[in-house]
Design a protein that fits this description.
Length: 172
Amino acid sequence: MIRHIIAAIATLLALWAMYFMYQLDVKAERLKQIQEVIRKSHQEVHLKQTMQPIQKAPTTTASQEAKKKENEVEQKLKALKERAGNMMAFKVSPLYKQKCSSCHGVNGEGIIGPKLVGKNESEVYQALVDFKSGKRKNYVMYGLLTKMSDDEIKALSKEIGTFAQKMEAASK
């Protein structure tokens, strides 16, 4: 009786293996067909190079050209000044530049990270401690704060807490 059960199981396993191999063969054949279609569809396209007549631009005087370039320079300079805004409105510590400015802006005005101007020292300190401990989830902040000492975190908090006064003083 046990021999018949073992034989039946072995037969079922053999049939399953045959079916599995058949499925692999079908998939391999499909891949070959796809490769053949890709190979047949690959065509080289030769482009003719044609010469087109060059059209002459309307002539302008040298003074008109100089004035045009001067206007372009002025517009670019104006756009650059507008984009710069209040960059470096006040000095920040090297620690802030290294750890914070890429996300929160040179003076805490916010870029990717939230705006820091207007936050008080204790609020910033508590947030930094929460990020470092993992209580608040932010992997970027956690990565930046893990190797910072408590003294560095306090100094950073104190500095950020003064941003509103520094910004106000710089705007006067």
